[in-house]
Amino acid sequence: MAKSWVNSAERIGADLHLELSGSGGRRAALIDALRAAVRSGRLAPGTRLPPYRSLAADLGVARNTVADAYAELVAEGWLTARQGSGTRVAERARPLRAQPVRHAAKGPVTAPPRARAPRHDLRQGTPDASAFPRAAWLASYRRALQQAPDEVFGPGDPAGRVELREALTEYLARARGVRTAPDRIVICSGFAHGLRLLFGQGGGPLRGPLGVESYGLGFHRELLRTAGVRTVPLPVDEHGARVEELTKERAVLLTPAHQFPTGGPLHAERRTAVIDWARAQGGVVLEDDYDGEFRYDRKPVGALQGLDPERVILLGSVSKSLSPALRLGWMVLPERYVEGVLTAKGEREAWASILDQLSLADLIVSGSYDRHVRRMRQRYRSRRDRLVAALAAQAPHIEVTGVAAGLHAVLRLPPGTERSALKAATWQGVALDGLAAFRHPEAETAATADQDGLVVGYATPSEAAFGAALEALCEVLPPDGSAGVPAAG
Questions:
Q1: What are the tens digits of pLDDT across the range 271-328?
Q2: Fewest Cβ atoms closer than 10 Å to its Cβ: which of 78, 187, 394, 411?
Q3: Residue 79 DSSP one-character state
Q4: pTM surpassing 0.85?
Q5: Is the bond preceding 261 in cis, omega lying within 30 degrees of 0?
Q6: What residues contact residue 215 under an 8 Å CB cut-off, 6+ apart?
Q7: Measured on CA atoms in the order 106, 107, 108, 114, is the torsion positive or negative?
Q8: Are 16 and 55 a contacting pair, CB within 8 Å?
Q9: What is the pLDDT of residue 131?
């Protein structure tokens, strides 16, 4: 049977870290050090040890000292020696199991149990991980690595590689209607990183208070709170945020293409109104373009940034289109904010891998990124349709909203049933989010008290697991006329 890489001679045969200590002589110290390394598990059973000459040279001892130490440990059963196979750690030499730490009168201290993974993951926010374009990414990575100039392997430009900024300038103009230039784009590691650069304590150019939609990610609100930014909630209805209620705020954060999580684009009149507000107040609009590529039932809604590039900061990433594991995003900035963001970021690129930036640039320029997005748009639309069809057949009393775009849908529940539905979902091993979890704590309760719902991410499961996830979802929904009645399970 082939040996694993961990136990290969190539790893241990060349280098072996040992610390020789004690007053019993070099031979005794070497024997003790080798015993300790085997006993602790640092030298696993089957590991090949360095030849006598190599280890003697590394440790600065005589070759016979190493040979005698090996022979002693072979005799004790710690090591084995065979002609042509070298000296190895004996298979029976298993490391001691770590014992629980005991405290007086308190018993053993054990590690906390791991959270049980859900059987069906319908949480929002992540794409289908199994669909990552591995072959296309590998091809782009290889080309980027082969063509990269030597400077790539030195300190990085905090603005990001110019190759990626140029590729994004063309792509965002073509696909999202963005008007910009490479020197107005700063690469970051994602939306949250962008917020930290804009509002962070490291010298970001923006200050609060910040207008936000009354529904959004609590993680973002907490990030802003930690940075000392007060967020002021704006009511949300079927036409998006009610931007007419902006008052003394100098900035507002919106999801114009697809309000998160309730769904629906910002109405055209409100898009114009928020630009007029920014011009009149000398303010700025932060546009979270988190899933603008995925629209299904109508023509794509262009980025708000296209209406006034000097009054809108667009933030985007590949966390929905490719994978959040890449940690790649971008900010399209008005000219007056570029220097402040670069100052906050620092003199060198410390966040986004330069090679990953070059790979993404190649993926875009080669057309592979567009092909992947189109393929995933068709897949997610099919899943959306399957979700809507399953609910129409098994739970027709449940209204589904926010399905014209994105990777999730909102299931409107009878008042008073959200908590019981979530409890039933947990019991059945279905992971999903309740609508209340996204509500701003200072939002007016009178306008939102009757908005019970579930936020269902239909992109996360693999194709093979999606059907079973839909069946499990339908089983935990409250029945018709079940206001206040716990869901099944």
A1: 999 999 999 999 999 999 988 888 887 667 789 999 999 999 999 999 999 999 999 9
A2: 394
A3: E
A4: no
A5: yes
A6: 236, 259, 260, 261, 262, 435, 438, 439, 440, 443
A7: negative
A8: yes
A9: 93
